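quick one
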Amino acid sequence: MLGRTPLAAAIRALRSELAGGPRADLGREVRELSELLAERELRRFAVHRDPAEQELLAALPDAAALVGKDGSVRVCNAAFDTLAPSGRAAGRTPLEILRSPELSEAVRRALEGTARRLDLELARRAFLVHLAPLLRGEVLLMLRDVTETKRADATRRDFVANASHELRTPVAAIRAAAETLLGGAVDDPAASRRFVEIVARHAERLSRLTQDLLDLSRLESRQWRFALEPVEAAPVARQAVELASAAAREKGLALVSEVADGLRVRADPRALEQVLVNLVENAVKYTAGGGVTLRASVDGDAAILSVVDTGPGIERHHLPRLFERFYRADAGRSREQGGTGLGLAIVKHLAVGMGGDVGVESGAEGSRFWVRLPVA
Ligand code: ADP
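structure w/ adenosine-5'-diphosphate:
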């Protein structure tokens, strides 16, 4: 008789549907039963839903959930829901949602009354987890995504380590030269000149480094105020050429600006000059023969100022990281030329700060560094 009940018929039909058969017709009674069961499941969570509690959870900046005495999430905010693979955390245990045995154990201990804070890595993101036992026997579970903060901390640590390393070399050289002078070399005119020259060269390097570090720090902390105004590009380009002309002459390089009069860009005059000076100085520094040319072109409402050199070019794999601070394609050559490794990082900050952008293309015949700025 059992086989004849609507329920048994529905079960058989469903089994056959799932095995690849036609769509099962469940009949009215079974459909109603199924709807009621779903409704009961929904209410299981809804019964406990207190609007004040939900408002509070929604106001928290972190992913937050209340874990009930049975160890499953009773109610949570939207940020917590996004952590669940199904997008719905209520009714599931933290282990099912986050798949971390360590967290699951901490939740269990918190349900027994022990507050905990732990660092957790989930799906390659770093979380700071807080577990607070509440008076009514539940636990407030909060997950703060600290991936970006951790990344920023690591970057800052790297930066300090790099800067200290860069400062150590000239300081050590100055100290050694001064000690040699004091140890007697000062009485030998030829030797003393040599050591004083060492002091002067490394003091110059220190001064460049500290200036670059200060500029970069002001740019990164947004203390650098950009005064944007229409600026004639040609005189600024000529000024950059002028400043590097002695170094270019010494190396027998042709250094010219082909930027025509009349092109006006929206820029901060001082920042634009520093951008072009840095790019031209680099081009002269790294080019052994041939020349360096400044050019301008217009692309829609943007002007592109380029510094083109006939230097050795830069290997492709360096290009994406070239504008990072302290990144060098050829560290030995950069140091030998008195480079700080910060010039292009400053150029990028300045260009972006003026609402523009920078880039580089490089090949066997040389490099082209460009800066794009709005036409004024
Ligand atoms: P640096 O003080 O070392 O020159 P920059 O930030 O100005 O630092 O430049 C970063 C690196 O990019 C340099 O060390 C050098 O390897 C490379 N580079 C920059 N400009 C040129 C160029 N015109 N030709 C070849 N390499 C360059």
